[in-house]
Design a protein that fits this description.
This protein has 122 residues and is mainly beta. It has a single domain, classed as Rieske [2Fe-2S] iron-sulphur domain (Rieske Iron-sulfur Protein, 3-layer Sandwich). It is built from one helix and ten strands. It has a four-stranded antiparallel beta sheet with strand order 2-3-4-8, with no helix packed on it. A three-stranded antiparallel beta sheet has the order 1-10-9.
Length: 122
Amino acid sequence: MNMLPPASGEWTSGEWVEIGDLEAIPRRGSRVVKTARGDIAVFRTIDDKVFALEDRCPHRGGPLSQGIVQGDSVTCPLHNWEIGLADGRARGADQGCAKRIAVKLEQGRVSLAWADLLETAP
């Protein structure tokens, strides 16, 4: 999945960027959206809920998109930190948070909030 630049002018804070079909994201898996501000991991749960987080574990920057999705969390592939998909927060004794990106799912199409993408750390 790749994010396309705006067709005309600048995006405004209330807009959504459509990134593709839900079916392009495997259940219990993810896809990466490349942006100028960094990669976004878009996750799909077994029951077709969709979440998006900055693709960096808060621990050591591991690629969350390569982690294992279990229920409503993803396990970082580097050091097994469990990160909540809904809020980006580390679970258990671990502390830290991956930035959450708002997601909209309509008629099988996935969109991300443009304002959240602008705020993603480089």
